Amino acid sequence: MSVMERIQAEVEGHPIVLFMKGTPQFPMCGFSSRTVQALKAAGVGQMHTVNVLEEPEIRANLPRYSNWPTFPQLFINGELIGGCDIALELYESGELARMVAETQRA
């Protein structure tokens, strides 16, 4: 399986996927930490995370896959939502909670 196929399998295999630096318990950058906090505050019980610091191939190729240059990268229902700034904006508007609730109904 190529790295692009692995990325696609991760994105399509889970309703919420966060490619981040570190883990939700031990985030390794402030942007990843704030994104995890926004997701939890929006009601995410279960999210799949990929630590790009432990997956150098994914870290190198994800920006090509998603057309998004930075980390973290949040995918919901197979669709790129964006990074930290977008996740925080969606959280503040209430939109992130709605998107999260939809994944849990599916």
Ordered list of secondary-structure elements with their pairings:
Elements: H1 3-13, E1 16-20, H2 30-41, E2 48-51, H3 56-66, E3 73-76, E4 79-82, H4 84-93, H5 95-105
Parallel strand pairs: 1-2
Antiparallel strand pairs: 1-3, 3-4
Please give a structural write-up:
By secondary structure, this protein is of the alpha+beta class. The protein has one domain (3-105): Glutaredoxin, CATH 3.40.30. It has 5 helices and 4 strands, in the order αβαβαββαα. The protein has helices at 3-13, 30-41, 56-66, 84-93, 95-105, and strands at 16-20, 48-51, 73-76, 79-82. Strands 2-1-3-4 form a 4-stranded mixed sheet. A hairpin with a 2-residue loop joins strand 3 (73-76) and strand 4. Helix 1 packs across helix 3 (56-66). It comes from Luteimonas gilva. Belongs to the glutaredoxin family. Monothiol subfamily. Keywords: 2Fe-2S, Iron, Iron-sulfur, Metal-binding, Redox-active center. Pfam families: Glutaredoxin. [2Fe-2S] cluster binds at residue 29.
Short characterization:
The protein has 106 residues and is of the alpha+beta class.
CATH structural fold name: Glutaredoxin
CATH superfamily: Glutaredoxin
Number of helices: 5
User: What is the mean predicted local confidence, pLDDT?
Assistant: 96
Number of strands: 4
Query: What is the CA-based Rg, rounded?
Result: 13 Å
Query: In what range is the share of β-strand residues?
Result: 15-25%
Uncertain segments are none
Give, in order, the helices and strands: HEHEHEEHH
How many angstroms does the end-to-end distance come to?
28 Å
- How much helical structure, as a percent, in the residues? 40-55%
CATH class: Alpha Beta
Protein name: Glutaredoxin
Binding site for glutathione: 21, 59, 71, 84-85
Domain Glutaredoxin: 16-81
Family: Belongs to the glutaredoxin family. Monothiol subfamily.
